[in-house]
Specification:
There is one protein chain. The protein is an alpha/beta fold. Helix content is 36%, strand content 20%. It contains ten helices and 13 strands. The protein has an eight-stranded mixed β-sheet. Strands 6-7-8-10-9 form a five-stranded mixed β-sheet, covered by helices on one side.
């Protein structure tokens, strides 16, 4: 499976496998129109830095077409891929790789060729990439973790977060079991939003709602946030930027800034740094649902005191 993924990263667009017959070219779960039609006339915005994670290429839940739309309308000097970009767990169970997933890989490679510094920080679902630390795939750097310095001089630890997840480190079998249940919830989410689309309603994440209403899940997220900020403090950083739990968030926690860029399966979010060092979350589904320009689809956050 690793060789197959490696070949995908190196291949030309016209040499890559095509989507199976009958596979829709875009996900119906978010909008009644393909994303490139919804925001095709929107202007591009340039950021100092962008962070995306938990894309899960190789799964039916991946919203690849919407990520392509985001990448088309948002440029940056540096782009961090903060883990779980390719879902090796699911690809080991069965090969699923439609054209839109090829296009995401090629778009990232193209950005790197055109001058964007692209840094790939692997997560638990694409941990096979960790054996390539210090190397590069088509100008994409691979690193286990990075210390990012913002324009205003703040230091942030950038890591996926799985290495600080007790379940992943000490009960991996439970993580695999949970992944299977999560896949079922995502399938329910796609069915639910398919109905909403046909009824004329915008996208609403049923899976996010269920997850954040479950007491144990909420407790896990709270504990995860604290562990991550504690690690940032130990590294003498001003904050941490991570992914892993699929919940976009920017907030102060015990004097440090906790930032999570969310995911491209449920919430369609990214983290952005503007030219002056301000950090903000971009909610791309809000932009698409409201037919707004990408420059309006951001949530400003407080600055470090």
């Amino acid at each position: 499976m690793l060789n197959r993924v490696t070949n995908l990263l190196r291949a030309r667009p016209d040499a890559l496998p095509q989507a199976p017959v009958g596979t829709p070219p875009w996900s119906p779960s978010l909008s009644a129109s393909p994303p490139d039609q919804t925001a095709a006339d929107s202007p591009s915005r340039h950021y100092r830095t962008l962070w995306i994670s938990d894309v899960h290429l190789g799964t039916a839940g991946c919203q690849a077409r919407y990520l392509l739309d985001f990448l088309k309308h948002n440029e940056s000097d540096t782009l961090y891929l903060v883990g779980d970009i390719i879902d090796g767990w699911q690809l080991r169970k069965g090969w699923y790789w439609p054209r839109a997933h090829n296009d995401v890989v090629q778009k990232l490679l193209r950005k790197a060729r055109k001058g964007t510094r692209v840094i790939y920080v692997p997560g638990n679902h694409d941990s096979m990439a960790r054996q390539f630390m210090g190397l590069a795939f088509g100008d994409i750097e691979v690193a286990d973790e990075v210390i990012h310095v913002t324009a205003d001089g703040r230091r942030f630890l950038v890591t996926h977060g799985d290495l600080f997840d007790g379940v992943m480190q000490h009960a991996r079998w439970l993580a695999y079991l949970g992944d299977s249940g999560y896949t079922l919830i995502l399938a329910l989410n796609r069915w639910f939003n398919g109905l909403r689309t046909r009824m004329g309603y915008p996208y609403w994440s049923l899976s996010q709602y269920i997850k954040h209403k479950v007491k144990n899940a909420v407790s896990f997220i709270t504990a995860f946030e604290k562990v991550m900020t504690d690690e940032a403090r130990r590294r003498d950083c001003d904050g941490v930027i991570c992914g892993h739990i699929h919940k976009a968030e920017i907030r102060m926690l015990d004097g440090l800034m906790y930032c999570n860029d969310g995911d491209w399966v449920e919430s369609l979010t990214a983290l952005a740094e503007t030219a002056d060092g301000t950090l903000e979350i971009i909610h791309w589904t809000h932009c698409l649902d409201a037919h707004k320009a990408p420059v309006e689809a951001v949530v400003p956050v407080l600055e470090m005191p």
